[in-house]
Task: inverse folding
């Protein structure tokens, strides 16, 4: 179930993005408004494999900003549930030290929403 997306000018993906949350859609709108090139969920990083090489755990950041070579992950989860996401980010940084990733928390998104008058509900 993806949210409908407008036509984006700075989007660099090949298929139209299908956002999982209103917060992701609004973030994409801000990036696009400022002309920041972005991709939506372009890469999945393997975090853990079993003895047979099967993927046990993986992580797909929400956005990639190619001009900054930066992955961005958004979380609007309750703070008590963010621990799991932080653990995944630590694993990603340990396994892929060359990858730059930034996590934006609910409070960061709320400040952004206030500043830009965004609707982050749902």
Result:
């Amino acid at each position: 179930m993806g949210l409908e997306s407008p036509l984006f000018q700075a989007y660099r993906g090949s298929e139209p993005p299908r956002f999982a949350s209103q917060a992701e859609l609004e973030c994409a709108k801000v990036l696009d408004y400022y002309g920041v090139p972005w991709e939506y969920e372009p890469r999945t990083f393997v975090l853990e494999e079993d003895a047979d090489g099967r993927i046990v755990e993986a992580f797909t950041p929400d956005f990639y900003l190619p001009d900054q070579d930066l992955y961005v992950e958004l979380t609007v989860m309750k703070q008590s549930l963010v621990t799991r996401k932080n653990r995944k980010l630590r694993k990603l940084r340990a396994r892929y030290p060359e990858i730059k990733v930034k996590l934006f928390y609910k409070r960061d998104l709320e400040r952004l929403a206030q500043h830009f008058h965004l609707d982050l509900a749902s």
Observations:
- The mean pLDDT is 86.
- The domain at 22-116 is CATH 3.40.960.10 (Endonuclease; Chain A).
